[in-house]
Design a protein that fits this description.
- The chain is about 55% helix and about 5% strand.
- With about 160 residues, the chain is an all-alpha fold.
- It folds into 2 domains: about 20-65, no CATH class; about 70-155, Cytochrome Bc1 Complex, Chain D, domain 2 (Orthogonal Bundle).
- A two-stranded antiparallel ribbon has the order 1-2.
- α3 (about 70-80) packs across α7.
- The model has no long low-confidence stretch (mean pLDDT about 80).
């Protein structure tokens, strides 16, 4: 989340974590956080009734979000997944299907999946005719592809 003093609380944990476990982690690190705050000339800030709940809810929400996409990987995926065989993107790619620039403002992989789902039957038929394999997305690949599309169109 910006600071390099402590762990990045917005980064998803290595293992699934409940809200109570997150609260426990904050509690467990409280003595160290107090020591660091004092060493840096800061004061220990206590939370009122709702502030700690709000902080934990906010951190839990951040952990639900996708990691930012890598546009360089997305560019590679645009060709590897064969998107470029049918779809144009700005000045490159095929012309058999829609230019992906028109959806540049959709940043959510959920919205992209919805758009793709609506066209799945037509896509499958065309891909079968062209001898192309159905694209599969692993881990962060869809987010990487979206980052590439947005980098080519200037959207953010």
């Amino acid at each position: 989340m910006g600071s390099t003093i402590g762990p990045d609380l917005g980064r998803p944990p290595d293992r699934p974590q409940t809200i109570t476990q997150l609260a426990g982690d904050l509690w467990n690190h409280a003595p160290e956080m107090r020591t660091v705050a004092q060493a840096k000339g800061g004061q220990w800030a206590s939370f009122n009734e709702s502030e700690l709940r709000d902080l934990i809810a906010y951190l839990s929400f951040l952990r639900l979000l996708d990691q930012p996409g890598d546009m360089r990987r997305g560019e590679r995926l645009f060709d590897e997944k064969r998107c470029s065989a049918c779809h144009a993107l700005a000045d490159r790619g095929g012309r058999l299907a829609s230019d992906l620039s028109q959806w540049q403002h959709y940043g959510s992989p959920i919205l992209w999946a919805e758009i793709m789902w609506r066209h799945a039957v037509e896509m499958e038929g065309t891909m079968r005719e062209l001898g192309l394999a159905w694209p599969q997305f692993q881990k962060n690949e869809m987010v990487d592809l979206i980052a590439f599309i947005q980098s080519r169109t200037g959207a953010r």
